[in-house]
Every structure is written in structure tokens, then in C-alpha cells.
Design a protein that fits this description.
single chain, 503 residues, Rossmann fold, 20 strands, 19% strand, globular, Transketolase-like pyrimidine-binding domain-containing protein
């Protein structure tokens, strides 16, 4: 509307009309037709072309340039993956590159043969792949050099002892939603990445529930308002998408409609933090904890692994009012069990005991209400995937420096366990907060609890570990964890320095 109102005839939009999106055919996800008429209704000059025909592309751009007093939209009809037989018109090849190894090379060769461009000679392709391999080795070395070194290698599953399973955190959300779906009041709403965030588990094995699932498409604000209406009528709606979208694009709706009215909407803040890796900065939610925490009536949980995600999802479902479960995409260490005590609103206290064959067996976990001080040297306070890194840091601190660490797993950020935080501050006098988020999003919440409530009978040393005032970038999640200084090795290094200051 704005473009046509101001007669922006130097503006041209191109719509890639391939009839697909991640959740399936566009006409099934959210029909767009009559697309041409809709653009015309907003005052645009419209053109339709074959998006694979270069002469049509060029002539349409020429016509757009000559059009006066109107912006132009070019509806380019295309076929996703055109020319590559195994990928053509296939949703599953969204964001997928050929895999490493022989099979990956074969699929790449097959694709290049299908495309048939004479530019892609075998010599050129081999040179490019060799160059890419060399570049990757350089990056790998740079990443490894950024990691603090110790007498031993403590990295995940690098030795016969302290072995850990890796399972995507999102799986726990899906398992919980599948079970919760037995309740007829539960409604699920998708935003075009239903399977990716495991929202599809709600109905995948229960087709009769499909009438309680609504695909809204890439329209987070609309999805939030629909959920609000359902909640007003007594339903318990779950909405979800990438964390950066489901807490950012719709923040006004979360604030003014959901939280202001205290509606019972549950939000899956999925693929949060740097766990989306290769998707890069635009898709990495590193500000969402701050965006959500200060909304009145909001409940916020950031579970540490798949098992705790399942528990957290179930816990917030029947708490009155809006609630968010923030979880990751990639496989992360399983550091709790089904028997690990869990209570919404209460932190878990974790203590490293002794090196064992399995990582989880090396630790003891209690509810904060059941814990008595053991005279630890320092406290690591973490949430989400950083709990596992804090646990590994406690292991390194003990083995390398004989330092004892108290770990607080703050899976519930709101309401936060103030008593556990204050107790740790008073009893250890050293606090290091750990977050996979812009530094201070979680750390400042903890610091605020201490500053507003602690009686300063003894000095307190506090440090915060997180992403240092920058956007994310593309890379493997574990690469980014190292580059951003979020590993146990970095936590150990910072904790040791803080402890030396205390002495």
C-alpha cells in the first residue's frame, strides 16, 4: 500500500512462485490465489513470467523500468530444484547440501550433469572442492586454537570415560505434545516448520487430532492472535516457530494481546540460540530471553536437554497464563534422566562427584530446597544447553585445579528461584552465569536478584559468560560454541581467574 501510495515506480518486487513451502504445497498451507489480483488491489503493476526463461526475465525488468507512477511486481513461476532430477519439486531439499564423502560427491556430479552448464567442467569443480576442503581445514584449526587447553582433552565423548548421549532437545517437546494431545482442550498451531520443531508429533500418530491442528503459514503475528482467541474460549493453544520469529515478529501481539489479558497461550521458542548453526545470524535467537522475561504474566522455562524439555512442556501446560519453553534444534548432551527431580520454579543443584564411564553418573542432582552447602569454592549458574557446559566445567575445575563447584540449573527463569541464587551467593561468594544468549540477558536477571536482596556481609565476585554484543553467524553449532567462548573450557578459564581474585 505504501509503495503504490507514493507511486514508487523505481521499485520492483519479484515473487518466486514455486508453489512450495516447508510444510508442503502452498495451496494446502495457506492458499495465495488469486495472487495477481491481490497485488493489483494494492495498486501494483503486475507481470507473470516463466521464472526459468531468461528472455522473459529481462523483458519484464525492462517493462518494469518503463512503468510510471506504479511499483511493479513480477510473478515468476518456477520449479524448486529445477534441472536436478532427485531434488526437483521436492520440499525435503530445502537448505540441504550434498553430504561429505563418496555419496555426496556422486550426488553433486549427478546434479551438475543434470544442469548441463559447460562452465562446470570436472577440472573446475575439483579445483573448487579442493579449495573448499583447504578452507575448512583452516577454519577447523582457527576454531580449535580458540579453545583453552588443559593437561587432558575434556571435550564431549573424547575418551572412554564420561560418555554422553546426544539427542535433539526439540524431541522432548514433541514427545510431551504428543502425550498432552490426549486432552481435547489442547490445540496446536503451525508456522510452516511444523515437523522441524516437532509440533507435528501432536497429530503424526493420531490422525484424529488433525482437526485440532491449524497451519497458519509464515504469519507469526496472526498465529498469536488466533491462539489468543482460542485461549479466550477455554482452549490451551500451543504456537511455535524459530525462536527469533515466534518471540520477535509477534512481540507486540505477545505483549498487548496475550500477556496483557493473561491468556493461556503456550509458546514453543524453538531452534533458539546458536543451535540453528548454518542458518546464520538472521535465524539465531540471541535476544529472546530479555524480550520475554520482562513481559508481565509471562512464564519462562529454558530446559537443559530433551528429557527436561519434555518435563518443562508438561509443567507449563496447566499453569494459568502465557508460558514459553525455549529449546534448541541440534543434538545436545543428555544430562538428566526421567528420575531427576524436577519442579517448576525450583532450581536443581548439581555437584560433580567422581569421573565415571557415563557422564551423567558422575554427578548428583537435587532440588534446591533439599540441598545443604558443602563449602564449594564457586557457583556456576546456567540455563538451557549451557547447563551441560557448566557441568563439564565443574569436572575440569575439579580434575585440573581441585576446585569444587556448585551448579545451579535454572530451568525456570520466571518465576526464578531467588532463594537458591541468594544462598549460592552467600555461601560461595563467586558467581559465574552461563547463557547461550546475548550476555546479560540471563546474567542480569541473576545479578538483579542478588543486588536487590543480598545483605553484603562479604564481598561477591560475579562474571557473566554469553555472546558478547554481536549477532551470530553461519557455522556448525559446536564450532560457534567454541568461537563465541561458550564452552566448558572457556567457563573453566574464567572461573579460575575469578577464584584467584578471591584469594
Amino acid at each position: 500500500m505504501c509503495a503504490s501510495h507514493y507511486k514508487l515506480d523505481n521499485l520492483t518486487a519479484i515473487v518466486d512462485r514455486n508453489n512450495l513451502q516447508i510444510d508442503g504445497p502452498t495451496k494446502e498451507v495457506m492458499s495465495l490465489e488469486p495472487l495477481l489480483s491481490k497485488w493489483q488491489a494494492f495498486g501494483w503493476h503486475t507481470l507473470e513470467i516463466d521464472g526459468h526463461n531468461m528472455s522473459q526475465i529481462l523483458s519484464s525488468l525492462d517493462e518494469a523500468e518503463k512503468t510510471k507512477d506504479k511499483p511493479t511486481v513480477i510473478i515468476a513461476h518456477t520449479v524448486k530444484g529445477k534441472g536436478v532430477s532427485y531434488a526437483e519439486n521436492m520440499v525435503g531439499y530445502h537448505g540441504i547440501a550434498p553430504k561429505d564423502g563418496r555419496r555426496g560427491k556422486e550426488s553433486l556430479d549427478h546434479a551438475l550433469r543434470n544442469i548441463g552448464d559447460p562452465q562446470f567442467t570436472k577440472e573446475k569443480v575439483d579445483h573448487l572442492l579442493k579449495k573448499a576442503t583447504h578452507y575448512q581445514k583452516e577454519v577447523d584449526k582457527k576454531v580449535e586454537d580458540s579453545l583453552p587447553k588443559f593437561f587432558r582433552n575434556y571435550w564431549w565423548n573424547s575418551s572412554a570415560s564420561m560418555q554422553v548421549k546426544m539427542i535433539p532437545t526439540r524431541n522432548g517437546f514433541g514427545q510431551a505434545l504428543e502425550e498432552l494431545g490426549q486432552d481435547e482442550k489442547i490445540i496446536a498451531l503451525g508456522a510452516d516448520i511444523t515437523a522441524s520443531i516437532r509440533m507435528d508429533k501432536f497429530y503424526a500418530s493420531h490422525p484424529q487430532r488433525k482437526n485440532r491442528f491449524f497451519e497458519i503459514g509464515i504469519a507469526e503475528a496472526n498465529m498469536t492472535l488466533i491462539a489468543s482467541g482460542l485461549a479466550k474460549e477455554g482452549k490451551i493453544p500451543f504456537i511455535g516457530s524459530y525462536g527469533v520469529f515466534v518471540t520477535g515478529r509477534n512481540w507486540d501481539q505477545l505483549r498487548t494481546t496475550v500477556c496483557y489479558n493473561n491468556y493461556n497461550v503456550k509458546i514453543a521458542d524453538a531452534h533458539a540460540g546458536i543451535s540453528v548453526g548454518a542458518d546464520g545470524a538472521t535465524h539465531q535467537a540471541l535476544e529472546d530471553i530479555t524480550n520475554l522475561y520482562y513481559l508481565p504474566n509471562m512464564h519462562l522455562t529454558v530446559p537443559c536437554d530433551s528429557i527436561e524439555t519434555e518435563k518443562s512442556t508438561k509443567a507449563v501446560t496447566y499453569i494459568k497464563g502465557p508460558a514459553v519453553v525455549r529449546y534448541a534444534r541440534e543434538a545436545t548432551p543428555i544430562v538428566t534422566t526421567s528420575d531427576t527431580p524436577y519442579q517448576f520454579g525450583l532450581a536443581n543443584i548439581i555437584r560433580y562427584r567422581k569421573e565415571k564411564k557415563n557422564f551423567i553418573e558422575a554427578f548428583e542432582i537435587k532440588l534446591s530446597s533439599d540441598y545443604t552447602s558443602e563449602g564449594e569454592d564457586l557457583t556456576l549458574i546456567a540455563c538451557g544447553p549451557m547447563v551441560a557446559e557448566a557441568m563439564r566445567a565443574a569436572y575440569i575445575l575439579k580434575e585440573e585445579y581441585n576446585l569444587e563447584s556448585r551448579i545451579l540449573n535454572i530451568h525456570t527463569l520466571k518465576p526464578i528461584d531467588k532463594k537458591a541464587i541468594l544462598k549460592a551467593a552467600e555461601e560461595t561468594n563467586i558467581i559465574i552465569t552461563c547463557e547461550e544468549h546475548q550476555v546479560g540477558g540471563f546474567g542480569n536477571i541473576v545479578a538483579g536478584v542478588i543486588a536487590r536482596n543480598k545483605k553484603y556481609s562479604t564481598p561477591l565476585l560475579l562474571d557473566m559468560i554469553g555472546v558478547e554484543d554481536r549477532f551470530g553467524e553461519s557455522g556448525e553449532p559446536w564450532e560457534l560454541t567454541k568461537v563465541f567462548g561458550l564452552t566448558a573450557e572457556h567457563i573453566t578459564q574464567r572461573a579460575k581467574k575469578l577464584y584467584e581474585k578471591k584469594k
